[in-house]
Amino acid sequence: MDAVPSQQILQEKTEEIEEITKLVSQYKVLGIANLQKVRANMLQEFKKNLADKVYMRVLKNTLMKRAIDKCQDKPELKKLDEYLEGANVFLFTDLNPFKLALTLQKGKVRTTAKARDIAAFDIVVPAGNTGQPPGPIISQLNSVGLPTRIESGSVWINKDTLVARKGDAIDERLASVLSKLGIKAVEAGLAMHVAFTEGLVITQEQLAIDVAKTRKELESFQAEAFALSISIAYPTKENMAALLQLAHEEAYALSINACVPTKETIADLVRKANAEMLSLSSRVSIQEGKTSSAEKTEKS
Question: Domains in the chain, ordered, with CATH?
Fold first, then answer.
């Protein structure tokens, strides 16, 4: 009597494996992210936010392994077997894998903290009405350092108060208070621990890019390359204007020093000649003055 349900389950699994195989063939990149500490509501939000870029699907590792075995045209996929452990969500996309990792990083969502969670930023509880009636809430707020008062039948917080700094572990008492106040103090996201594309397996460490640092390094490399191309007069699209300006300045300086008159240099040559004439005239006057003084001294 169990034959029919078993046959049905087998058929469903076969169909799912076929579907997974098509997804692997359809997209350029297959990413695997761990679902540890990712709640169902968070995953739904991730799917919604990234729907236009990434197709996400939670699959059993055994089904993925069987689908990989069927992808005869991509034998390198077998390298992913060692990563098929634990609860995973699989990401199918045509995005560059590094851009995908950055997209996931930016796609983090804020959520309510639980005990032992780490504060994602400095947590400041703002002054104002908590909306809570007087009662045990007062001692709970005071226990985490929040000054309170009762006004118009509600508990108010007297001033903006820092209750945790970025990186601090949130204890159970503070987590409870933040939850009551509706403050989301932690960030949750999907961290891709491996990606496969064009026969390459890229690990989480390789996918982690410090964008600001990388941009700074590239800017430094570009500046050094530009300076080198200028110093050796190697023309490129980027440095042509600078090379022409430098060549013009050197040619101009040479024509001035060699006293070669041109339409561009004639004014400066005249000014240079005038300056040299005045300098010479000044020296002659000084010399004449010295000679005159010497003659007077001899006569006396």
Answer: 3-108+189-209 (3.30.70.1730), 123-187 (3.90.105.20), 213-257 (no CATH)
